[in-house]
Amino acid sequence: MSSERNPLRLGSIAPNFDAQTTQGPIKFHDFIGNSWAILFSHPADFTPVCTTELGVVARLQTKFDERNVKVIGLSANDLDSHDKWIQDINEVNNVEVKFPIIADADRKISTLYDMLDYQDLTNLDAKGIPFTVRSVFVIDPKKTIRLTLAYPASTGRNFDEILRVVDSLQLGDKNRITTPANWKNGDDVIVHPSVSNDEAAKIFPGFRTVKPYLRFATQPTDKPSA
Ligand code: BEZ
């Protein structure tokens, strides 16, 4: 399936695929199961920014577990390379990588998810074939894509921000709320515009009206999935 003919948008079903990973073969949808998933690509094994990023993700493992999120990395290298690189990541960052990394040396999955780098001419393998950019897909248990990000090879991502979006999405799925700029888990939320004032009085007692279209409430106790 060509990604040009079928762009992956918010609301698209994440394409299913078979893959070899550092934790054995997977079928992506079975791997997700009833969890949320974060599929993220990084340009290549044994590269500096990627080595720091995967250390950060490994350190956040408990936070992903608490939110019922399975994390899975991908780079366009083979399993042998991934296995060796994980030893470096663990050593350099003083962590233990517990999430799988997909081996995508033939770029089948990177192509399916439109992850290949078309602009950075330093982000190529020895044959001149592009590696991936730093893509992120947040996928819910129905396999729907809920967030997409694409960062250049030169810029490491902020994984706290990705967790923050997961918190907002999970909270918004369970409650009729949205979250303001720079919101973080525990801060006041915004009453969804579709909620009338009469309904809001019942659902969000004590809600605060700043403008008729801007109403704040304390964060519902129904927290993002544990
Ligand atoms: C890096 O991870 O450091 C990197 C990878 C590819 C291109 C540029 C930087």
TrEMBL record:
Q: Name one Pfam family in it.
A: 1-cysPrx_C
Thioredoxin domain span? 8-171
Which key words are in the record? Answer: Antioxidant, Oxidoreductase, Peroxidase, Redox-active center
InterPro entries xrefs: AhpC/TSA, Peroxiredoxin_AhpC-typ, Peroxiredoxin_C, PRX_1cys, Thioredoxin-like_sf, Thioredoxin_domain
Q: Which SUPFAM superfamilies does this one have?
A: Thioredoxin-like (SSF52833)
Signal peptide segment = none
Top-level taxon of the source organism: Eukaryota
| Protein name from the UniProt record | Thioredoxin domain-containing protein
